[in-house]
Design a protein that fits this description.
about 280 residues; six-stranded mixed β-sheet; globular
């Protein structure tokens, strides 16, 4: 059973400065991953920023949209075309200069000058509020800082509960470290102060759980997610996109739901009858 990779919240400069690596799985399958300068092994990511530009570079009747999204650290350009028909219909309704959240698979291509360019194949794009943009940038900053602390041997970041995938060979060196710290400084400088203060206050009030003690903090959500999947199942399983829409409408945390679905797949309580569909056992 193929597990759906979680979409890691990433800052754009950390994403586009990554390097491509091939890794061999236990069953001998070779997978391509991307390793960021802060030490994340990436397959799928979520980025949040301002939609700076949207241009139709396709032909009549077959639009191909080229979009550019920028956060405080940099910008990334990607396209949406006929291979993503649902997304292709939604893109014209997006407004430039408004904040957006983008989830997609990390990929790369070789430019005309021979340079390898890191980008993504979007799976979801939606407009968000300024506060939501600040929160997503804060999550990405927190994750990056947690990875850096781990690579430096400083232990877990306070309030941090989700493990992040690490590369086999950590990135290092003074130049890389300084660039990573610069990415964090640039982001924190632009965060909405009320959002930042509220998150810090919640972390300070949260009791620290001793390592190895207590239960998995995600288990309490498993029955809720199973109920969602059963509720949306019309016989052939629940479309992942329908589950995401349901999560957004009910103001659940999409990050938590993705992690819970991955855990349910691992436990055999949910399976994928076909790609993009989920069904409870």
């Amino acid at each position: 059973m193929k597990r759906r990779e979680p979409a890691l919240p990433m800052l754009i400069m950390d994403l586009i400065s990554s390097s491509k690596e091939e890794m061999t799985t236990d069953d001998g399958y070779v997978r391509t991953s991307f390793v960021s300068i802060t030490g994340a092994r990436m397959f799928r990511v979520s980025i949040s920023g301002i939609l700076m530009d949207m241009t139709d570079i396709g032909s009549d009747g077959s639009p191909i949209y080229r979009l550019r999204v920028a956060d405080p650290t940099g910008g990334v350009t990607f396209t949406v075309g006929r291979y993503s028909p649902d997304l292709q219909k939604k893109v014209p309704r997006l407004r430039t200069t408004y904040p957006v959240l983008v989830v997609g698979k990390v990929t790369s291509f070789t430019s005309k000058s021979g340079e390898e360019v890191i980008t993504l194949n979007p799976e979801m794009i939606r407009e968000i509020s300024k506060d939501e943009r600040s929160m997503w940038n804060l999550l990405a900053s927190r994750d990056a800082l947690a990875r850096m602390w781990k690579l430096e041997g400083r232990g877990p970041l306070p309030g941090r509960w989700m493990e992040v995938p690490q590369p086999e060979v950590p990135r290092g060196g003074e130049e890389v470290e300084e660039k990573a710290k610069g990415i964090l400084r640039d982001t924190l400088r632009f965060l909405n102060r009320s959002v930042f203060s509220r998150e810090i206050d919640q972390i300070s009030r949260r009791p620290r759980q001793q390592e190895g003690a207590g239960s998995d903090p995600l288990e309490e959500y498993e029955n809720v997610v199973l109920d969602m999947i059963n509720e949306l199942d019309r016989g052939n399983g629940t479309r992942w996109d329908d589950l995401v829409d349901h999560v957004d409408r009910n103001r659940f945390s999409r990050d938590i739901v993705e992690e819970v679905v991955s855990a349910l797949l691992d436990k055999g309580l949910v399976y994928e009858p076909v790609l993009g569909y989920l069904k409870a056992i």
